[in-house]
Amino acid sequence: MKTLQHKHIIKWFELASLTLRENKDYLTKLDSEIGDADHGFNMERGFNKVHNKLEEFSLNTDLGAIFKNMGMTLISSIGGASGPLYGTFFLQFGMAIVTKTELSLQDFVTAFEKGVNGVKLRGRASVGDKTMIDVLAPVADRLKESLSENNTFEKVFSDIVKSAEKSMKSTVPLIAKKGRASYLGARSVGHQDAGATSSYLILKSLKEAIEE
């Protein structure tokens, strides 16, 4: 597959909503160990709002507008830091693909990088801080590398999910430097970051969306 189409984006959002609902308790458990114990609930609530908009999204062929709508939906419905961060990612992603009805790999890579940079700026986080950036930034790097490899979306998305899973697990030995977890200092070591985990789950849903 050489282009990512409207139907794939809609399927991605649908599967992400279902996956986060299914993993609500798991994400809450992770967050309860070093955070506010609300990440699972917040993500499930926000993406349920997205799920309720799937019919509306299906009628709009402007992918940039869909992503921006999604970003605003998450900002308005997810509590804590996750809403502004995930919302910023999808808003910035959408701004990079205004009026596009399908995406080339170059389009996707550019938009993804813009989204990640938006999260970095808003959250003031870097790789190694034990946050969602520990997953998103390496994925952005892997995506840029893929541009020179002439791979299909199927191969590229398979690769980034492997990268995301590895990066998610790499947060376990880190000391948290952002958010409530940072208050724990060395006691945050040994726990997987909930935000990194939800990022992995969202990317895994993207891979599955183009396989159906």
Automatic annotation (TrEMBL):
SMART domains: Dak2. It holds the Pfam family Dak2. One of its GO terms (molecular function) is kinase activity. Transmembrane segments: none annotated. InterPro entries: DhaK_L_YcgS, DhaL_dom, DhaL_dom_sf, Dihydroxyacetone_Kinase. Keywords: Kinase, Transferase. Residues 7-208 form the DhaL domain. NCBIfam families: dha_L_ycgS. This is Dihydroxyacetone kinase subunit DhaL. It comes from Flavivirga jejuensis. The lineage of its organism: Bacteria, Pseudomonadati, Bacteroidota, Flavobacteriia, Flavobacteriales.
